[in-house]
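Bump. Still looking for MOSC domain-containing protein structure tokens.
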Amino acid sequence: MNKFVLSEINIYPIKSLGGISLQKAKLEERGLQYDRRWMLVDEEGIFITQRKHGKLALLQVNIAGGKLSIAHKTLPEQNISFSLDEDTGEQVSVIIWNDTTTALEVNKAVSNWFSAFLEFKVRLVKMPETEKRMVDRDYAFNNEIVSFADGYPCLIIGQSSLNGLNEKLLEPILMDRFRPNFVFTGGEPHIEDRFKTFYIGGVLFSAVKPCARCVLTTIDQQTGEKGQEPLRTLAGYRTIGKKIMFGQNLLHHHLGSLQVGDELKVKNWKD
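Sorry for the wait, here they are.
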């Protein structure tokens, strides 16, 4: 059996904006530290993503010196930053999929900057530490909570899975289309489908549900342009129950730290 090694750790501080690649990360109760703790919402409080607004891919996020900064990938003079702990204290009711939860607006200037970029009124909100958005009870073990991620604290994909897909595509794509938190090397394509429980470093994870993929994967994360791939090709060999699956959603059983190079050790395999 091949050795599995953690090769990437990624966080996406603002939902649906550019990610940050890390060498090491802290795993907190609702997921990796700073992962999807902020989100854009419209005037009705409904969450906004690249699914409808592909140009969000053009915004890169960085964290340094206690600040979160956002800059346009090709027009870096378009940028703004704010303190990681900043908020107005004003509670906002927000809707993400089937969940209604409470958030806090960061500040008016940041919201106005995003409104100008998107050309309609939006607000940037953060999830307060006191908020408890629950993981789907059909898959939760112990009332786990999640940030503004679609539904689960973490997502893992094997590098072999992307390599196998790229062998089928006319033009290869990057892993950033799939927005994983963890990427690992070793094993055949989609070996992660067989993981039941596994350790990365000293942290125990359960793979609880395949990740259903949407139109966001068809958006080039460097240009914001939308195409037909990889969904068209994936539909031919990764359709399960009428949904296209790629990667595994995870729950973690305790907190800890992880770093690139950690070995992934499978504890139990799925039948």
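The first strand starts at residue 4 and ends at 11.

Edit: fixed formatting.
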